[in-house]
Amino acid sequence: MAVKVMIPTPLRVYAGKRDSAEFPAETVGEALGRLTAQYSDLKKHLFTDEGKLRSFVNVYVNDEDIRYLAKENTPTKDGDVVSIIPSIAGGC
Amino acid sequence: MTETAALLISKELAEGIRRHGAETYPHECCGALLGRDGSLTQHHDAHADDGTPRREILALHPLVNRREDSPRNRFEVTPRDVIEAEKAANSQNLEVVGWYHSHPDHPARPSQYDRDHAWPWYSYMIVSVVNGEPREMTSWRLDDDRGEFSVEPIEIRQGAAV
Fold it and tell me: Which chain B residue's Cα is nearest to A16?
């Protein structure tokens, strides 16, 4: 078993059309790092140039927002599901 | 800007977006565009006769603008709303292929704010609403390198939806 990372629809074309990928990972940061190492085109859409998660990228571990846990240091274990859910924003 | 294939939408659905923009004026409206895209599905609807992948809007999922603090010039769809839109799409065997919003008393052109918050792959439709009247409607796709929005031509399908 490993950690399952769910890939949101707008990023699937950069991940071989996959809607999920599995990696061994002990933290959310490690899971996302392995995801972007395998699919490097994802990196710029998830992270700023400074390496921070973009504000409209929401990450959950088993339905809990990592902002309320330990952010990218949130521990993960086999069988956990890490979901990446967009916020959508814009305006004049 | 890169060339993008046309976004297909029926006259009725295009009118639905314009109507939503008029209803919420002077605030921005927003909603999800549900449909099919040949880059993710083999469904025959998502491909032209020559096999070229295409994108067609087949339903709208209007949403509530969550930016109650600044609804005249900002809109937001929360992750919970995104999940709800995706469930609505899946229940109709469709995908969320993009989002629409209005620009009250502003042109239907993406702003810097639009670009800073955009996801790739999605179609971003914008309708300009001036003095309560819907005017031009455009669609945009963020370039892969996040540098620019490219125009996505809209092809309106006339006649009743099947």
Answer: B40
- The ipTM (two decimal places) reads 0.93
Which of B111, B122, B29 has its CA nearest to residue A13? Answer: B122
B51 against B148, higher pLDDT: B148
Sign of the dihedral defined by the CA atoms of residues A74, B79, B120, A16, in that order: positive
CA angle B32, B102, B20 (to 5 degrees): 65
Q: β-strand A88-90 against A57-61: which pairing, if any? A: unpaired
Residues 81-110 of B with CB under 8 A from A: 81-83, 86, 95-96, 99, 101, 103-104, 106, 110
Number of domains observed in the structure of chain A? 1
Q: What is the CATH number of domain B7-157?
A: 3.40.140.10
* CB burial string B94-114: b at 16+ within 10 A, e below: bbbbbbbbbbbebebebbeeb
Would residue A47 count as lying in a domain? yes
The owner of tokens 């409607």 is B137
Report the CATH number at residue A54.
3.10.20.30
Residues from A in contact with B at Cβ < 8 Å: 8-14, 17, 41, 44-45, 55-56, 58, 85-92
pTM of the model: 0.94
Nearest by CB to residue A92, choosing from B39, B73, B83, is: B73
Angle ∠(B148,B151,B156) on CA atoms, nearest 5? 155
Residue B101 has its nearest CB partner, among A9, A55, A90, at A90
pLDDT band for position B159 (50/70/90)? low
